[in-house]
Q: What sequence folds into this?
């Protein structure tokens, strides 16, 4: 084990108990304090290390967490790599690019996975084997031998203005209305909504302090008057005392988790008669981004409000560029 590996091990073990800022401070402190130190494994005889697939996956997990990858994202990468090793029956030092190519082909034929998911799996494997090659765990990056694939650009569905108003005019409980107005006002991700505390809401300036799931940095979201009032009404009406902004309806009244929030998002849309799509939190997020861009034409501002690392993500995955969008622009130009 070298110095970097030791530091990453410590960060990995401490990560569940520290904030992102504390983790960064711990890593920097250890780097400074150990800059003149050398680290080497103590030798005991007899000692046999088993560098198997579980070992390499653990190393990947440790380094990825130390680098700042979100646990929710990392778990998808790890699950994909584990499945690859299990189904090929190969050791990480023996697997080849052809093995990966064959695995992806079988998945598409046998399991009927979509082309886009096939592209996603290739991305996961490229990240893992690219890391393993850079860390000298393997002699070459086998993904260089796996042909790149193009994803199929899906139609970017979002709720229409009429559908948003239909939901708004439907009967909703105080918590449902607070979640709805928050979603269409801020475009927060489901995990970001779950993590919100009451103290994150600034009712005076109608602002929300949001910890970004993807960027792992705080940003500020803005509330409409309707959203601020709906959230205030929910807080005034609820009986449970909690630091969490949204709490479960049943004991022990803990913080609402992602599945429960998704359930609310879909339920209020179905109640308003919207059945053409599954109104996930992500659909409300796309709706927010699309509406904000149509109104402002300021892609940089919209990208910042959405918490995207760059505007390319906003344009590629969120802006609605279909007939509805063209019709909207056409109507504005022509009165």
A:
């Amino acid at each position: 084990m070298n110095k970097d590996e030791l530091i990453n091990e410590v960060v990995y073990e401490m990560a569940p108990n520290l904030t992102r800022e504390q983790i960064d401070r711990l890593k920097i402190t250890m780097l400074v304090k150990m800059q003149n130190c050398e680290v080497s494994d103590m030798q005991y005889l007899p000692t046999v290390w088993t560098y198997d697939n579980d070992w390499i996956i653990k190393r990947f997990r440790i380094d990825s967490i130390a680098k700042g990858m979100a646990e929710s994202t990392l778990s998808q990468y790890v699950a994909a790599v584990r499945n690859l090793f299990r189904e090929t029956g190969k050791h990480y030092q023996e697997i080849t690019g052809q093995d990966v190519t064959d695995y992806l082909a079988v998945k598409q034929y046998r399991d009927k996975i979509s082309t886009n998911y096939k592209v996603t799996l290739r991305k996961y494997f490229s990240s893992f084997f690219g890391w393993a090659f850079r860390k000298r765990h393997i002699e070459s990056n086998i993904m260089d031998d796996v042909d790149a694939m193009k994803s199929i650009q899906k139609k970017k569905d979002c709720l229409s203005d009429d559908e948003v108003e239909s939901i708004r005019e439907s009967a909703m409980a105080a918590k449902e209305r607070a979640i709805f107005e928050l979603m269409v006002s801020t475009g927060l991700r489901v995990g970001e909504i779950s993590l919100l505390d009451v103290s994150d809401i600034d009712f005076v300036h109608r602002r929300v302090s949001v910890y970004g799931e993807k960027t792992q940095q705080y940003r500020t979201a803005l509330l409409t008057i309707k959203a601020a009032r709906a959230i205030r009404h929910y807080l005034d009406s609820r009986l449970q005392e909690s630091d969490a902004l949204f709490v479960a309806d049943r004991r022990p009244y803990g913080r609402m988790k992602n599945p429960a929030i998704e359930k609310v998002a879909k339920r209020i849309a179905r109640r308003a008669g919207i059945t053409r799509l599954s109104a996930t939190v992500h659909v409300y997020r796309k709706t927010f981004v699309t509406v904000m861009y149509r109104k402002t034409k300021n892609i940089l501002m919209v990208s910042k409000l959405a918490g995207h690392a760059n505007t390319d993500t906003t344009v590629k995955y969120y802006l609605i560029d279909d007939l509805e969008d063209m019709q909207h622009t056409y109507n504005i130009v022509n009165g």
